[in-house]
């Protein structure tokens, strides 16, 4: 094996280290086998690397699909991680204190699958590995790594998500360690490793993640940059010529270079050891030069990224390696043997950890009991008892009701990690003596000094990474954290790709979205959502909820904290809203309910969220008989029986429904026959003027509703036609 | 006036400069008045600054709303820009060669409005300035700057958008200059100035913009960083402690520091002069230390950001300045006089430019004619003649049809600026001898050397900035550019905030979104849209279009290039699709049309985009009589008359509609009574298996459709209930 070729970058201020590191590989008690030191068999490593590359090539060729290039280029990185660097247990893949690994360049998933096979993850059988891109719907080798499968911490693929998730995982460890570790009892000390490609460094999400992780001084995070300088369009320098190392240093990272990432396993292992070194004061970025598709005729070329190498090319690779060109999917026994001790090593770590936790229980019984509950993802089943049974009756913005409802629970229950994208004064989610999650040695110019025990996260003006970090927190271990994010509703469009990933993975994150309508007023159309709810209402597994007042906010929080099958979004108002006295937290949990029933109704008025009170007032004004339905959530309503749904809407009895919501109508056609909805973007006008400006005026709505019902009755409105009752529009 | 306090940062490699710059302020021919040099009256500048700050304070106090702090802190920057630095003509605000200015921190809009008033923009009357946050819906002073108003280049507010738009404006200038300028005839040489706050540096979008602008070496772009170190939650160092200057240098920017941004107008003017200096090789970033709410009791505090200062506080400010504490909205005549020559100066520049262009017409008549068409935003009215009348009849992905349709037009018409977020091989939008937009001295490792004349933009893996740059290109001057972006449809979720801003501003940008359904196959659910179309279908002013085959792709491009009231999105398939022979480009332009009519129909099958062919096949298989409607666009359909809509759907005749689209149903309830739609996220399976996996199988759909129609006829399906015919779900 070559001499370790770890180089410090010219900009790095940290002390240099070189060959002497090789003998300090991994913590001694974690050392699974002979380190990749000077006694290791060079030829054996080469055999492993060659086998790995050819296996990847064959697997992509099999069905003529897949992404071979970067997986092949990262072969040495795989050996360094799964054989030497990471502390994990393939036969106990959900071990609480395992190192977390994320492949942020998720298209290279085959890299991870093949390493899982080699490391002897039980579910990753040979047959399963061969199912990559086959017709098997139960393949454990999908086109991007998926959270449902052993060894995969989070689903990755959309670029930049993985590195942002990794920041969340590292925050989780820091917080748990600061909260529960005691001298001699490091019950949580796992490390987070994340591989990124060129793309994750270009995506804005990745930039946010790097900047924020550097600020947080997440020393338990190591990013391994697979620097192959190739993307789909060609060489990266077609489009990105920044000095990556310098940028990372500016963001507060320590930077190491590995000059030969293709073959120099030893250098990579030395870098990983540096990553795990807890005396660092910064997260570590390892810039590993690799060659996409190395060993093949398309090495270093974009064409090797997303297409199989071709049979002739693969045969030539085999020939150059001195392999049998006819043999496919060949793994020499020596390669399998190379990894055979991994499961036993892992189980030993698991039992050592259990022993430690048992001793911890004796030494710190109360703390250990709390820790155990966190490990099991339990919060008190009666957690909601701290929610007040009733609320002040004066007009209140629903964003303010957040605080009435949750301040006790946030204070008492450590699973809650509450955060905001720089909108603390707007979202009202702090609690008595809340502590900020920040490095303890950070002395901010304003605001209090925080610590890693802190559970209030100032994400900065970085909505996207906030969403993705929350996903990481939720995925750390089921139920250990209940992450809350918050921003203006409109800026959940910035966070949307992360919110979607949470929904796809069924991660229970709660998003609190304020300023959720034109009622936001003078900030104008850039800040007034009219179409965004359609996205979250359409998103599978997502509970999007618009509570009408404090009472419904209580229901929204209760149902959201209890929902474990995906994210929730609680959409609240900037402006004060009346407490109508006819809302119900129990009703909210069903998505829609009858707030006011009448005999022989002529019409059902559907009111929603911040504008529910319009429906109540309109019902009182109308010259015809109007029922009132509160309809805060499509998703919750759709979980109810058809009988319940019909009893709420009563459209099957021939009663037409009219909805009042100043969003575009898309979606309401399922529940209503007509609506007062927006047909354009909003307008900058103070809240007290804007509803009138757009025609949400009780007198005007009275006239239009009466005319509509009359037309409906006399049959002049076509079946299956949704009638738009608002004419006003601006932008 | 203080000695110029421009400092170079330690990291800057460029030569230092200091006092000697003061005498070289602005290009001599652009100098409007005595430079802010040593002869300028210090007291006068102080009077202007004080007046400006107090005016802002009074304006926010008037209606007890608004963002005073940063506008007050930037007073000196305002003087430097509108009095000295920028080349613009307030009485000819759309002058083609004007400098472009963007306020990326758009909440500080009052800063811009007040400067527009001082600079004598005609529409910004005193009465208008006083209307900030009033009840006037026709106020020219909305809560964020809006493109509709004089002097505002693009609507800003959502953070990071402005700086990204500015990159687009600077690209526009570079491209026009490289294409049309000739020795002695710099017909386009305007500069782009952009103010950013702390937030724009944190947002991922801003990071993408800085990285890409540095790569492009946009020497005609100067960013002025209002470095007040305050955001809503407190001091910026609570959440961001990166070395901003070092990061900017790593991204390829030249960095200058201005240490006293509060008072030192001269230093800022010197920095602006450096910005305009065309001998630079990089864009310029000026780090200007300022103090939010300076002069008030809340100076340097977050509370001054988004709330009025308070009457007592304002009175104290006035007292400290020696002003009459009772006077409100007071502008001394001397201050108005200070700006009075601005319009005449601007008109002189305008006429000089017209003179230059007239001489250019004589010297280069053909080029000048083409330039004139660009200035007027004209492309040949018969541009679409290059679209073939018919296409190959073999199965073709609609993404490939992009090339059939547009390669001639892209090649011939220079208004087209085609770009991609690293998906050139996937989107098929290059043309013969296309040239890449890149600095001419860039020699990429792979791919050809480009130039600023290039019209193909490799945006890198930066979807969000791609969308925002395209907005900047479109807003440079109406019709001068027709920007095209491209990516996977799913990654238009990353770009969505920019796409929305384009829709809000009615900017004609065309987004080409490929891999637009589960048919994308093995990439899996991260890359398979199921809910995203709901967002774009709900977005006002947006034409979201899913063409079914090459013929409809032709219609989609034609209608999109001709649509000037907002963006279009052409949503195309990864997979090959049959050419059914019953589609029509003219039909597409109406959003939906009857592709196959039958007498006494039992059902209407609605087919959409990549899955239209399922409707055609199903109609053939059914044991009942089925009409077939192709329905590529809600937005286009809604522009048609109610009569046309009824003639297409015929639901008013009692014929039920069944839609086939593997997206969630949201929205289809308006047009259909039942649907084969997704109820979950997708799944990783090769394209040839995935439709069956989710139940989009002709035999299965035949049975379900027949049962549904039978139930419909016998009345067992409730009115107003949308019937979901697919059971399958995955994630």
Give a nutshell description of this structure.
Two copies of one chain form a homodimer. Chain A is α/β, with parallel strands linked by helices. Helix content of chain A is 37%, strand content 12%.
Please characterize this protein's 3D structure.
The structure is a homodimer of 731-residue chains. Chain A is α/β, with parallel strands linked by helices and 731 residues long. Chain A folds into three domains: 6-347, Rossmann fold; 383-577, Rossmann fold, CATH 3.40.50; 593-724, Rossmann fold, CATH 3.40.50.920. Helices cover 37% and strands 12% of the residues of chain A. Chain A has a six-stranded mixed beta sheet, with helices on both faces. In chain A, strands 11-10-12-13-15-14 form a six-stranded parallel beta sheet, sandwiched between helices. A six-stranded mixed beta sheet of chain A has the order 17-19-18-20-21-22, covered by helices on one side. In chain A, β7 (254-258), α10 (265-276) and β8 (284-289) form a beta-alpha-beta unit. Chain A is globular and about 90 Å long. The interface between A and B is large, with 140 and 140 residues.
